[in-house]
């Protein structure tokens, strides 16, 4: 069974990103076609890039990088759940990506992003060339959530609407197809 890593790309206290990413995790587990690795960048707490060698060389010297490399290497596909900050994606996502190189290559990635009026569209547009440069293959269907605070239940859980749930299911389908096509090439 392919391993899907869900990367939580918001790290600040009180973040809405955690309930959104937990919804993605619940949906992936209910789907039943993935082993799920939930990678919360707030818990992983990577410092700003502190490796002395270019990530392409995979000569990691820090335990946090070795651990992050192992997790990313084991993943067959990714969903990045991230906010829009100032018309772009979060520093936590950029830092986590920059730590590694080959671990990302030839793997499919989907996006679940959020923001105000734009729903995080500008963040997604900013992140696309970065994941493409790392050799990742993006899904066509991605989730953009406008004003996600309106979808938090009394218990703090994110409550997706029907369209968001449908698009996420289509994203899972595409991640599996892409995994099947790309895995022989890796």
Structural overview:
The protein has helices spanning 17-31, 41-44, 63-74, 91-98, 121-133, 162-182; strands spanning 3-8, 35-40, 77-83, 108-115, 137-138, 143-146. With 186 residues, it is α/β, with parallel strands linked by helices. Strand 1, helix 1 and strand 2 (35-40) form a beta-alpha-beta unit. The two termini are 17 Å apart.
Helix content: 25-40%
Task: Sketch the topology as an H/E string, one letter per element.
Answer: EHEHHEHEHEEH
* Approximate strand percentage: 15-25%
Largest sheet: 6 strands, parallel
How many distinct helices? 6
**Residue-averaged pLDDT:** 96
Core attributes:
6 strands, 39% helix, 6 helices, alpha/beta, 186 residues, six-stranded parallel β-sheet
Summarize the model shown.
By secondary structure, the protein is of the alpha/beta class.
Please give the structural blueprint:
Elements: E1 3-8, H1 17-31, E2 35-40, H2 41-44, H3 63-74, E3 77-83, H4 91-98, E4 108-115, H5 121-133, E5 137-138, E6 143-146, H6 162-182
Helix pairs in contact: 1-6
